Amino acid sequence: MSLHPFRLRRALVASAALALAAVASAQPPATASYPAKPVTMVVPFAAGSVTDLLARIVAQRLGDALGQPVVVENKAGADGNIGAAYAAAAAPDGYTLMMGAASTNAINPSLHKNLKFNALKDFTPITNVASMPNVLVVGPQVPARNVKDFIQAARTEKYSFASSGAGGSMHLSGELFKTMAQVPDFLHIPYKGGSAPVTDVMGGRVSAMFCNLPLCLPHIRAGKLQALAVTSARRTPLLPEVPTIAESGVPGYEVEGWFGLFAPAGVPQPIIQRLNHEVVRILQDPKVKESLLAQGAEPIGNSPEAFAAFVHKEHDRWAKTIRDAGITPQ
């Protein structure tokens, strides 16, 4: 029995609508026109920094995926606060993103007064891009060959630890270790930058350092520094023989530098979901994984909701660590 032409046309229209709905449901949500122009990815640190290198790896692939260039713009200064304030104040249209870090979005709010942005309220987390451990290193003058020996010696010898500056990841790694390992006289010696403290640890002028992995890895491999443990919850593939601090006698200890993609608060959810989908897919690419690992970073890629919960947890944890260490916000 044939259908009346009108009924046949209506049936075809309904069938086409169902097919379009099925296709739409299989794709990540996105606005129809986004992006219609280049996207800016703000890096609140200098060119050549770890954050900058990771941003450029992601930006190139993200531009290919979106069909529009993603341009990295460095706005360094004030421990990342200048760039973060700039990104937070941008129009919430998805055309300004920020490759943030633990410092900008979790640590700095407890270290700096009168910030021009609220790290929790003024950003929408998109995804956690990568994490990077620090590594506890000692110079040849320190006889300890493991963390337990180091803790025992530090309680009597009054060891010191260097960092690239007060309030940074290296410093706070040491403060948390100082509290959890119960070494109250573990003296912090801040420097301006990362190279000088590494030289002084190798030369015996400072006992130890919670060093960014890429910074100290060449010296570890050359035998000039001894790696006692990494600060992450798991061992790093770059130093698989080096245990974690947690498994070396300080259970529960965990510090990882992390880098994540953010948008200003108020960006429409379809755009956030589109960006999340693309970046997570990029981070699963074997070549991208290899590039990140070469920088000492391990790719993550999670949902906006999971990343938001993680950022809040990190914010609260470092606020407590900073209070416990007696560090006064400047």
Which structural traits does this protein have?
330 residues; alpha/beta; 10-stranded mixed β-sheet; 10 strands; 18% strand
Helix residue percentage? 40-55%
Strand pairing plus helix content: what structural class? alpha/beta
- Total DSSP E strands: 10
Question: What fraction of residues sit in β-strands?
Answer: 15-25%
* Contiguous uncertain segments of 5+ residues: 5-9, 11-30
Shape assignment: globular
SSE order, one letter for each helix or strand: HEHEHEHEHEHEHEHEEHHEH
* Main sheet properties: 10 strands, mixed
How far apart lie the N and C ends? Answer: 83 Å
Averaged pLDDT, please? 90
Question: Rg to the nearest angstrom?
Answer: 24 Å
How many DSSP helices? Answer: 11
Tell me what the structure shows.
The structure is a single chain. The N and C termini lie far apart (83 Å). Residues 5-9 and 11-30 have low confidence and may be disordered. Helix content is 43%, strand content 18%. With 330 residues, the protein is α/β, with parallel strands linked by helices. It is globular, with a radius of gyration of 24 Å. β1 (39-43), α2 and β2 form a beta-alpha-beta unit. Strands 1, 2, 3, 4, 5, 6, 7, 8, 9 and 10 form a 10-stranded mixed sheet that branches.
